[in-house]
């Protein structure tokens, strides 16, 4: 199966701003004001972190850093919507939790109006995902920390499924950074991630299995293995034919589990989980156990921290008992 790329409509070209900063290039740093998102709640100034304030001076380097791993640019305004500054802080928090899977770039439009003008920003908050220096609109809703974490987790799962597995190196927070630190993969997972990037899913499965054999408590390796197995199962599948088969045979375990894998790769976790929960509810014996085991594998691929996994586990328990 050919992987469908992570894509959202309405991408905006930021390359012009990256090449030729406008008249506001001398604007003060985003963190200078008392209401800036970096003023509180994110990493301590000067500490190693996976976020930075974005200014015209470091904008180009920040965009170029997305060639190694995704950059999420969050636009906020302490003066117009203080809640958007909180969301920027929350994105910085989530970036720390993902340990370099993406870099959070915080853009205070009160001090960086030229960047906001270049992207024709209409509202705050607004989040762009920048991948290979190409920005795409990602979020335009005000989200709390838990919802933001769940959404970013889903995006990261989609990107992992496409072989986008690079990591940013920690950097010192703040605009003076320049976002030009060398990037590197976590060496523990580099062989498996390299295999995914090369499209060698079988090798990725083998590499993750080695990691788990050495350390059965390695949660990230377990999640990586579960996702790699989803990719392995769907590698030569025609999605349309597989979905048609599932629609025509609602109690066929093989058809339904394959369709659930496709739902997961499409980012529709609720559909994937509910499909198998209902199959567990309707089935018995070996079929029921097979559906349950497959669903547990999908939970592992997503990660127990995702609230949709908790909801799915509760639904599974209800279906079983």
TrEMBL record:
Pfam family, one: TPR_20
Annotated SUPFAM superfamilies: Thioredoxin-like
InterPro entries: Thioredoxin-like_sf, TPR-like_helical_dom_sf
Signal peptide range in chain numbering: none
Region Disordered, residue ranges: 1-38, 161-186
Biased composition (Gly residues): 23-38
Protein's name according to its UniProt entry: Tetratricopeptide repeat protein
